[in-house]
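Continuing from the previous page...

OK, I double-checked the sequence for Alcohol dehydrogenase against my notes and this is the correct one:
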Amino acid sequence: MKALVYHGPGRSAWQDTPDPEIRDAADAIVRVEAASICGTDLHILKGDVPDVPPGTVLGHEAVGEVVETGSAVRGVRPGDRVLVSCISACGSCRFCREAAYGQCTGGGGWILGHTVDGTQAEYVRVPFADMSLHPLPESVDSREAVLLADIFPTAYEVGVLAGRVRPGDTVAVVGCGPVGLAAIATAQLFSPSRIVAVDVAPTRLEAAKRLGADAIATAGEAEQLVADLTGGLGADVAIEAVGLPAAFELCARMVRPGGHLANVGVHGSPAALHLEDLWSRNLTLRTGLVDTSSTPTLLRMLIDGTLPASSLVTHTFELGRTAEAYDVFGRAADTGALKVVLLGEPPHDTLSVRTGEPV
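Thanks. Re-ran it with the corrected sequence; updated structure tokens here:
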């Protein structure tokens, strides 16, 4: 098969690789129908995630068809259409028993495209298939469903739930990439009084408005705007969805005393925690890796048409055109890219591949 293989910082190639094989009785082999590129993949290519070894197939988000299962798999069978979760869960360790699958100590957690070969390939081996695959009805568009592999549960769990968004809150979301936009969409489930979206790219701020942000601001304007909207108190919840020190420190300055700061972004360099300013403000700081325990709930919402996933997909490419797809996604400020989806052949849905053109 062919796959996108990481060869060290700044280097990757779409190349021939061995077909995946069943290694454990709990494995499944999935033919990739759709995969997507995550900001974490860009961090890996930059060298920000040094525990990814060269030779690893990248990617941790996919929709596909089961083609083979190990002898212990009971929840899916060949021919089933499935969502591949970005988190693999053994199901029996202490953390999995608490539904904290991202912290799995039984060989799972974030492993796809990290410590084992990932989803940006024609086929992928999925460990712990019964816990890590979600059956999909044929009616669900693969380009929407793939967003539930990572960005929607990440935004909802690590941003909205960890940030404890409540009715009447003022919520500031710093970073309006795909995860930030998903946080804006899912924060509305809890009826905040206002959501302030912060970004440097006008196209992303416009996308934030379309998804329900009540106010938008650049980084230089955000503190004053939030102060004006809250009578000087600050945001009840600040969600950091960039992964840059400046974004984290901006969130810390904007959140009110007694408020919550939820860090979602993947950080490749240190960020200052100004305890000389924060020690007396009763803040709650939450960090975390997504558990994907909310995926079944979000999937029901997608099937019911109440989750605005389609508006986040701006570009599609054939699976073999990963170099072009990464270039478009990596230059999002210039290209207007939000979520870039890679479609395998043949896709289950009947809509045509647009080969990199906006959808």
